[in-house]
Recover the amino acids of this structure.
């Protein structure tokens, strides 16, 4: 598949790049995508949630009423989960949500996600660019010129660029990542993926391992 290279002004440069079929043209594996996305979302959870059970609640331990003859259910403690202010039954406690996933499955998931984007024509190739200073309005102008200001975008760079990263940081629908940091969730979450020319080679190197 060949794609035209665009300037950040939205104009075409007249050049074309060919996407590697081994990365952007494979038969997608939906189950691998599911597993990798599940792992990514699980690892976003801190697992610090906690609740107080009846042994953690402050309160008297005396029996609050006699066992029989009241016409209601027996109750031994005011800390019973059935009473207001009592402990919670089977509540959450701190835990790890870590999931193990083989490298080959993660690689297949990323390639599958990129192939879906290529088939859907949701990939845009830009010539390499840089910003003189971190300025959000400059990045917004670039998206407007590319007619992508109303889309969720993921810009893939060959190497870290602080000016570009800081310019996009405050935009809710704009993400900037390096080629080797691409993950399945962000690829699929974005409406359009923007590759600078040099990042395509970096992607090929990262996923050919």
């Amino acid at each position: 598949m060949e794609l035209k290279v665009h300037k950040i002004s939205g104009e075409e440069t007249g050049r074309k790049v060919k996407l590697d079929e081994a990365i952007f043209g494979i038969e997608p594996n939906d189950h691998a995508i599911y597993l990798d996305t599940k792992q990514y979302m699980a690892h976003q959870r801190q697992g610090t949630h906690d609740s107080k059970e009846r042994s953690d609640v402050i309160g008297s331990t005396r029996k609050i009423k006699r066992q029989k003859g009241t016409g209601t259910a027996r109750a031994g403690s005011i800390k019973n989960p059935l009473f207001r202010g009592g402990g919670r039954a089977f509540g959450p406690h701190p835990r790890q949500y870590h999931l193990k996933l083989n490298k080959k499955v993660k690689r297949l998931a990323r390639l599958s996600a990129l192939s879906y984007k290529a088939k859907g024509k949701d990939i845009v190739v830009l010539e390499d660019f840089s910003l003189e200073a971190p300025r959000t309005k400059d990045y917004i102008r670039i998206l407007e010129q590319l007619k992508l200001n109303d889309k969720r975008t993921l810009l893939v760079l060959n190497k870290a660029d602080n000016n570009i990263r800081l310019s996009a940081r405050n935009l809710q629908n704009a993400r900037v990542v390096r080629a080797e940091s691409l993950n399945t969730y962000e690829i699929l979450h974005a409406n359009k993926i923007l590759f600078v020319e040099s990042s395509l080679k970096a992607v090929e190197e990262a996923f050919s391992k």
